[in-house]
Amino acid sequence: ISLAVVFAIILNKTRYGRYLCAVGSNPKVAKYSAIKVNLTRFMSYVAVGITVGFSAVFLSARLNSMSSTNGGLNYELDAIAAVIIGGTPMTGGSGSILGTVIGAITLGIINNMLNMLGVSPYLQGTVKGVVIIGAVLIQRKRAQ
């Protein structure tokens, strides 16, 4: 929650956050607006790398060990699903930290329900895929 608050402040209250949204929306227009697109992308990759590093440390502490072959297996699908469920369009450029947090909570509830119902882990990925497709279709309907 504290990380979400920090990133929400950065995204909504700083010049870098405005630049990041502009680059995510349309990099060519951002470049014409005198925004250093490559630097903005680089800084966002640095922020993501630092965040992933902390996440890996916390995950290994939680699991009490870390296997390099399957430590974060299928977490990328969870991350994409949380962002899409939170309302960020697949085209990028506009989204909110609060929406992503709500999407992550919703996805956690879905995962918990599937585990409690005894659904196979292989089918859980299918259910997440169907949820992603449903969220994209809803966003597409709203855009029209």
Polypeptide structure, described:
The protein has 144 residues and is mostly helical. The protein has helices at 2-13, 15-25, 27-32, 37-63, 75-85, 97-116, 121-143. The chain has 2 domains: 1-68, no CATH class; 74-144, no CATH class. The radius of gyration is 17 Å and the shape is globular.
Number of helices: 7
**Strand content range:** under 5%
- Record field, number of beta strands: 0
Helix residue percentage: over 70%
User: What is the element string, with H for helices and E for strands?
Assistant: HHHHHHH
Shape: globular
Q: What does the main sheet amount to?
A: none
Oligomer type? single chain
Query: What's the end-to-end separation, in Å?
Result: 34 Å
Structurally, the number of domains stands at 2
Could you list the spans in which at least 5 consecutive residues all have pLDDT below 50? Answer: none
Radius of gyration: 17 Å
The helix/strand class is mainly alpha
The whole-number mean of residue pLDDT values reads 87
Give descriptors for this structure:
144 residues, mainly alpha, 2 domains, 7 helices, 0% strand
What would a concise description of this structure say?
With about 140 residues, the chain is an all-alpha fold. The chain is built from seven helices and no strands. The chain is globular.
